[in-house]
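Lab meeting prep.
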Amino acid sequence: MTDELRVGVIGLGSVFEPYAESMRRLRAEGRIRVVRTCDVNPERSDAGERLLAEPAPFSTDYSDVISDPRVEAVVILTSMPAHGRITLEALRAGKHVLVEKPMSVEMAGAEAIMEETEKRDSVLMCAPGVVLSPTFQAIWKRVIHQGEIGRIHLARGRYGWSGPDWGQWFYRPGGGPVFDLAVYNITALTGWLGPVRRVTAMAGIAHPRRVVDGEEIEVEVYDNYQILLDFGDAAFGVVTTGFTMERYRSPALELYGSEGTIQMLGDDWAPEGYEMWTNDLGAWAVYEEIDPRWDWTGPLEHLLDVVGGATQLIQPRHAFHVLEIMLAADRAAATGATQDLVSTFDPIAFDVDSIYLSGVAPVHDRRIIRTEEHLREAEG
């Protein structure tokens, strides 16, 4: 394999544009080259060249990407119901894979993916990449590694919006706000607190009919949720999600401990710093966003790093556990019965010494690259 990873992209819809921005940057750094693109919609045939500023052969059949011997890694940005089967086929072809969330929409498909992953040397990178954000890692270091707010008793996550008016699949089986939105909060909370033991939920269809792609459709899946997570030892978390939120002004994530509270500001996929109360200090301390340039397409660069030998922080077993939680939430809502979970995952192998707790070095434009020297000076 050359130093420049040759990539095929499957899915050129709305998610592709932010990924394309990252791909252009990584291409300029000599780390990646997109050699094939694919989308089921032939009208997107020019999206690759238009957004990547370089031509790449286009197909409407994803198998053309997977079978191309030039393609070393496949980036899967399709509708969620297609993730599982494409991921499995790409792994069987010996490719590295980055798949957008979720890895699959059903457990049998995810189990097949895990089985294939564990018998191959290929890297499987499952979005979302919230655990990569410097702010997520700073909170982990303070709360989990250093224990600055004591023992965690309660946690809360929130992410939602009014829902897409494109893509009717969002409102059919395999869609919905848990797979699309709550996956971020659940990944983040479990990344801090570890595996969940039990799940219960209340859910319903708040908007039975919606206009999507210019057509009025019937909503077939829950669009409004409250999910309760039992982490064991009397530690509980709640995730509020839905295609039912017009706006919000509140922290994305909150952890309540025996000696204080910590809150991530903004969204967990787009943090805006954090604030922390400790009983010892008796006041709120506010920390600016550590690296304003970090964005949610980070798993792409992490894939390149891991292929090059770096420690993988986004573990497939973690994504598998998150999928079990999401499916259990639906069963709990449908049956009224709390669901026991069986999967687990290992703690994330962060390099503690590389994690900065603050990032207040002056910068007036987030496009300016923050160097390691800036961050060291900020922590002083």
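Slide two material, second protein:
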Amino acid sequence: MGALENLIGLEDIKTQVRGIANLLKVSALRRAEGLPAVDVAHHYIFTGPPGTGKTTVARLMGRIFAAAGELSRGHLVEIDRSGLIGGYLGQTALKTNEIIDTALDGVLFIDEAYSLAADTDRYGSEAIASLLKRMEDDRDRLVVIAAGYPKPMKTFLDSNPGLASRFTETVEFPPYAVDELVALLYGHIIKHGYHLDGSGEEAVRQLLVQKVAEANDAFGNGRYVRNLFDDLITAHANRIAGTAAPTRTALMTITSEDVNDAAG
């Protein structure tokens, strides 16, 4: 659970995942005492915009399930529509089952799962039907997490009664606040041996305040921060490369000039 607690933000999600972990722990203790086990299917809907930690938490949940003895491996298989849909009707069921086979004893993470539920999409319906059968048949060996934006994921659940009955718990991932985005960026900076001077700190905060104010559903959140870090070190390198014999401090220090160049 340490890796979960070390994640920036996501406090409500941490509470929810701790509850899942506690249920798994007590269920294992009850089994050890010969007490009846409650048959609970562990399939989840993750909703939220890109870059808010959905895949990271899914990977950690695999480890939690493995540690509790509920899954023998706990690995993560990440897939989207293109990985499930075949080139013709009939092939999709085969392809979907092959992917599920690779995820057995672990977690199958379906990103943008709502794309399977278009009204006229016979291929998507075929994939969903195959998925539902395996979620029931292999419920002791498989955790399925379907992820996407909140409204489309509601449409996904409403598209087939079997989905709502199998995905019984939703975990909502909110966009990161400015302070959380700053903390994420500092994590990258410190990890890689850089630091921001005073002007750089102020410029970064102003930039992230602006980005959050302008954000729409497509804003990358944590992904944007990772890309920003890459742009910062490129701008820093461009500035330092022209310096004769730069000092150790100069090689580490990101300034407002670098931030402005990175922001474009």
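Talking points for slide two:
The two ends are 39 Å apart (CA to CA).
The chain has 13 helices and seven strands.
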